[in-house]
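So, does this match?
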Amino acid sequence: MFTTQNVCKFLGLFILLLTFTSLQTRAQETKSSFWDNVDIGGGIGINFGNGYFSGLIVPSAIYNFNEYFAVGPGLQYSYESGNDFKSSLVGLSVIALANPIPEIQLSAEFEEAYVSQTIEFIDGDLSRDFWNTALFVGAGYRVGKGAIGIRYNLLFNDEDDIYNTAWAPFVRIYF
């Protein structure tokens, strides 16, 4: 029979079941929307000629918080050799992208890389291993999920840096 106590138990169980179902549905929506906001991309490069070779691979991912702001990690590996010189670099980075309007992309990227270099001489090799830190700020023209522009290394040091100059062009493509 329908007593007040049984009706309260039924309503309590119904509300608990409804809350659990709602939370589970919301968790699934959050889970799927997280990956819907992730873009994967990076860069690859190869350069060679007359005894020289350089190869680079830079995978990265970003999470788009909204249409204006994204953050993500990146990896990088490069190898260079030629004319009695060898260098390898392994690094990690974190990038933040801001799109104040659809056509403009501003960026800040922190990069930490381990560098191993060897120069071969007739009387022996000169090797040096060191960490290189860079903090880039940049601006570029954005088309879809890609951008082309220029960035500047705020921590550039002429004496102990892997880059020739503080300025560097970039092309970013995410899928």
About this structure: Strands lie at 38-49, 52-64, 69-82, 85-101, 104-121, 124-143, 146-153, 167-173. The radius of gyration is 26 Å. Residues 1-36 form one domain. The chain has two domains: 1-36, 38-173.
